[in-house]
Structure formats: structure tokens, C-alpha cells
Amino acid sequence: MKRTAKKILVIDDDERHLIITKGLLEEAGHEVITHRNWIGATTAVADTRPDLVLLDINMPALSGERLSLLLRANRRTSRVPVVFYSSNDEDSLRRSVAECGAAGYICKGNISELKRKVEGHLQSAGPHTRTPKP
Question: Could you give the CA distance from residue 35 to residue 128 in angstroms, rounded to a whole number?
């Protein structure tokens, strides 16, 4: 049975991480869209209607934590699972997930963990996570 490609939106201010992450996830069979900063990110999520958002925490001006709270508060984006994707230490990431209600976290730098955890989050999100367009 052929697996349906899932749509993943990666939001990160580091162009290098965007390119690497996009390549790895496309290699795993997913459709990957990238967005380079927080400006316009809520619109990007609402317009692309991804199955999963990978969100960097350490972005200038507006942190990933704050952006995730904005996504949860927006009717068009509130049901899209957000996973923090960061080089922060795991204790800090666990706290951020708990405080912001994110679906989880993935530490940057471990390719096999990235692929494994993305697959796990996509499976747990189920087929009906996309918010209908108004």
C-alpha cells in the first residue's frame, strides 16, 4: 500500500537548517514547505494547511514559543500540530512544550531522530488535523 505524502511546514530563521531539513524530509517522501521567519508565519500555516509544523524556538523578535501560542489562538491554525525543532537542551524543550501546548519537540542535529519523530507525530496526528478553510 502506497503511503500518502504528508505536508510539513518548517519555520526557521536559519537558511541552512531549512535546506537540510527540507531535503531530509523530502527524501522520506513528504511534501515540505519552508518559511524563513515569524513574519507571515500564521498566514503561511493557514494557507498551506500542513499536517505538521516544525517550528524553531530561537528566532529574532518573536520566539517560537510565542508564535506557537498565536497559532493555537487562531481559529484557522489552532488544530495544526506544532513540534518545536531546536538546538535547545531537552529540559528546556520539555518545559516549552508543556507551557505552550505544542505536540512535542525534536532536537536539531540527529537525522535519524528527526525522521523517526516526524513520522511518530504525523501518525499520532491522524488524518483529520487540517482546519477547513473559511
Answer: 23
33 contacts 8 by C-beta, under 8 angstroms: yes
Per-residue pLDDT tens digits for 32-53: 999 998 899 999 999 999 999 9
Helices 111-125 and 15-27, packing angle to 10 deg: 70
The pLDDT tens digits for 84-98 are 999 999 999 999 999
pTM: 0.88
Domains with residue ranges and CATH for the chain: 12-60+71-125 (3.40.50.2300)
**How large a percentage of the chain has pLDDT more than 90?**
77
